[in-house]
Structure formats: structure tokens, C-alpha cells
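Mods, move this if it's the wrong board.
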Amino acid sequence: MENKKPFKILSIDGGGIRGVFPAKYLLELEATLAQEFPDRPHIYQHFNLITGTSTGGIIALALALGIPAARIHKLYMENASAIFGAGKRWIGWISQAKHKRAVLEGLLREVFQTGFNGADPRLADVKTNVCIPIYDLMEGRPAILKNKYNAIFVRDYHLPAYMVALATSAAPTFFDPYTAAYEDLNGNTQSFNHKIDGGVFVNNPALMAIVEAQKAFGCSLADLKVLSIGTGHHKFADGCARKRWGLAYWLNKTRIMDLFMQGQSQQVENLISLLHLGIGKQEGENFSYMRITTELDKTCLVELDETDAVKLEKLSEKALQVFEYNNHHVMNKIIR
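Not the wrong board. C-alpha cells:
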């Protein structure tokens, strides 16, 4: 009997401007692909499903549209101050989102239009399958936006890709919920109101994508090859004899957002470990899986809306170091 082809998943975490890390890692991976597979030099040509949350959703959509990872890395490195540099002082932040999204929207539309003759591509235009989590405040529930890889998916593929990117990256307190209107492929005007960052419930979307592969594509665990890329993390712990745990503590430097996002990502890693290797890692590999991330220690703490060019350069360098250490394993275990 002919062996079934593996189903390959690329998953990218949320993390604001720390998307520099996966963008740089994927830039280097794409350079390797161009050397080893000159007829298939792009990331999208090596994955059956790409998923990403928040900044990971921006990267996932760009890659699925055929845009090189280098273009997204350049966007982050050159525009962090423009995107996040006009943050409000605390007094303004209490009643309004910290940042305006106009600059980010303009940049994403420009990048996403690459190869589409100045038109805004839609989810229908992706070159491989995508699933992008958002939270829908209109309905009060999570939602996963997808291209039409199943006949029952009749809504999402009409959406302009930049709108999906802005919705999944509308992190509470950082940006207002995303609201827009668009003309669908049938010429009808549709609303797309009050969508926020998918990181509020699935900052690491790798497990979601595994379930999607099983249920929407009919894969078994053994069919899967999963590459999950984080955005860097620092251990969130506070063992001090603290007496004040009020709002000022939790909102200081968006501490509560970091805690929610990192805790969720770490738990997804734990659950995938159970699927991958079993309790106590005693089962052997049930499928191919690699997790790529880095720890951010006190010498290089990068905020979600960091604008310090030196810190971003250090984070980019960390990605290069991790790539050089892991590339051989990723190529052999996931790509080939």
C-alpha cells in the first residue's frame, strides 16, 4: 500500500513586535529552501496549513500569499516606532487604546498587495490553507477565519487579508477592536465589526491546527509534521512577599496581557507534549513535532510594543542563533 503523504503544519504564536523572532527564523528557513529546493523556494510550498495568532497571524497570511518572510521582517524592523511610537500616557490609556492602527493598516495593505497588482487580496487568494483565530465581540465567542478548504466554509474567504490581519492583532488595551465593511465576491457589502486579538484564547494556535488537520482534512496524528514557532518569552514568576496586588501591579507594562498570553502558550506546549510523546514521554513520537522559541532574560526584555531598535536587533540575532542550532533538525524532521 502506498504511504500517505505527511500533512505539514506551520504555527506561529502571537507576541506583538516580538514577531521579529519568527520572521527572522522563517527568513533564514526560506533562504535554505531556495538553495535545496530551487523549484519550491517559498514557505507556503512546504506546508499544507499555516496558522498564526496576532503578529503570528500577520506573518501566516503574508507567507500564505506568497510574500517572502524577509519582507515582513523588514516591515517590523523598520517600522516599530511608527506603529507603536505614539503610545498614550497612562492618563489617556485608561480610557482609550494605547495605539492607533492607521500606520499598521497602511503598511499591511502595501505588503499584502505585492503580486496582486495593487489590489487587496482576500483569504480566497492564499496559495496554501490558513486558519487565523480572532475573538468576535459581536457574537461573544471565539472564531477561526479560514479560506474555503471545506465546502461548508462560505463566509471567511471573501474577507480581505489585511482585515483578517488587523482583527487578529487587535490586542485589548493596545488597539481598539477592529471594525470595517467590505464588498464580498458577489458584490454585496458586508460588515466585519468588533473583532479582537485571537491571543485572548489561543495565543499558540498549534493545537488548534492539529485538531483542524484531523477534522477538516481527515488526517491521523501519525500523518502530521508540525513546526511551531514562538515569539520569545520570559518566565513570569513573582515569588516576592508582595502585599499589593491591585490594578496598578497587573497593568504595569501590560503585565496581565503577557501573563495570559504566555500561560496559554505554555499550556498548549504541555498538551501537545502529551499527544506527541505521552505521559512521562514514554510512548515514543506519535507524530513529528518541533517547537522553536527563545527565552528573553533580564538583559533583553522585549515588550509587546517595543520600539527600541537595539533590543529588536538582539531579538533578531537570537532568532539567527536558534536557526543555526535547529535548522538541520527542522529540515530533516519537518521539511523533507
